[in-house]
Amino acid sequence: MKKLRYAVLTLAVLAVAGVATMAAMSGYYGGSDGSGCVRCHEIRPMANDWAWSAHRGIACAGCHGSSFTANVRMHLKNLSRIRLHRAGEVPEQIQLKHPDIAPLVARCGQCHAQQHADWKSGPHGVTYSRIFLDETHNTNQQLMDDCLRCHGMHYDGGIRDLVNPLDREGPWQLLDAVMHDEPATPCLTCHSIHTPGDPLASREKRGSLLAVEEETVTPSLAFFDRRGAEPVPVPQLPLPTMKDGDRPVEISPDQRQALCYQCHAPRAGFEVFSGDDRTPTGVHEGISCLACHGRHGMTTRASCAECHPRLSNCGLDVEKMDTSFRSLDSLHNVHSVSCEDCHPRGVPKKAQAPSPPPASPPPVTAGPS
């Protein structure tokens, strides 16, 4: 009985000591205005960026967790940072590690619930296991480090640390079972949270911008460059000069597409449909990716009605025509479909509406005698 009381008392003392330690750390490193975070000079640049960002009304703990979190890893990181400071081994800059990403994405969903749900149910919400254990892909193409440029840019290791074996025979497995259901293309792939910008509430109050204009100027859009370990804002990303053989291809000036091209990229010759390119040609040439693809879920089912009447010039329902929009097995890719695909002998001229009969001249009336 004494041993039990001693054990309970010991646990109580440890609990009180733990809470006191966390409270002390919260007081020193805390501060909803970021003042506690900047006590570490290596965090100061990120805190300064946050102070001008669209998320400046949200405390650091709202995204990164507080000192009272039950996440043991966070407390170990803080203790490790203190040890490095005391040893004079302070890093010049710190970066989010891969284990930090999934909890951060979950917190994104607390405020951006609809966008998070669309992303999770769409192709960009794919997991590491879906990407790197795909038998069809792995049989046809060797896995390599460059795969992580788009599918795992926040992963801390290389492809050899992630998948085994690295061959085209398999069977393949992830070396860390925790990675199985982790998102391979998280929110931070396309969004930089600390980018300068107005809070969403301020942007909504302006009311002078149309929906498409408001979407275009979203300040957080940026591509996370795995090589430099930092986001590159969309205005700094180039739009490629694409070509179809010797013919230059018209591209929509929508700058957001520069983000798409970072992963859906052509090969070095900038030929359309080489590599992972999806630049539209044919009847859809010059149309922006985001004219048809929803922003987060990449849904396209409602896109035809945005531009087309139900019936085409041929009198056919555009959504039932033989294209890959109707069936992925179609030979007519909706990105490149042209009138000649269905009219190889020549495109019929559009029927002209009959001209109205000439108006009858006004009756002649006799003037005064």
Strand content: under 5%
What is the 3D form? elongated
Describe the biggest sheet? 2 strands, antiparallel
Q: Give the % helix.
A: 25-40%
How many extended strands?
6
Query: Which regions are unreliable across 5 or more consecutive residues at pLDDT < 50?
Result: 208-214
Number of helices: 15
Q: What spatial order of strands do you see in the largest sheet?
A: 1-2
Quick rundown:
By secondary structure, the chain is mainly alpha-helical. The protein has helices spanning 2-29, 44-51, 60-64, 72-86, 98-111, 113-121, 128-132, 135-140, 159-162, 200-206, 211-216, 257-260, 289-292, 304-307, 339-342; strands spanning 163-164, 173-174, 222-225, 230-233, 243-244, 247-248.
Break the fold down into its secondary structure elements and pairings.
Layout: H1 2-29, H2 44-51, H3 60-64, H4 72-86, H5 98-111, H6 113-121, H7 128-132, H8 135-140, H9 159-162, E1 163-164, E2 173-174, H10 200-206, H11 211-216, E3 222-225, E4 230-233, E5 243-244, E6 247-248, H12 257-260, H13 289-292, H14 304-307, H15 339-342
Helix pairs in contact: 5-6
Question: Please, could you describe this protein's structure?
Answer:
This protein has 369 residues and is mainly alpha-helical. Among the domains are: 9-94, no CATH class; 113-189, no CATH class; 237-308, no CATH class. It is 33% helix and 4% strand. The protein has 15 helices and 6 strands. It has helices at 2-29, 44-51, 60-64, 72-86, 98-111, 113-121, 128-132, 135-140, 159-162, 200-206, 211-216, 257-260, 289-292, 304-307, 339-342; strands spanning 163-164, 173-174, 222-225, 230-233, 243-244, 247-248. Strand 5 and strand 6 (247-248) form a beta hairpin. The chain is elongated and about 120 Å long.
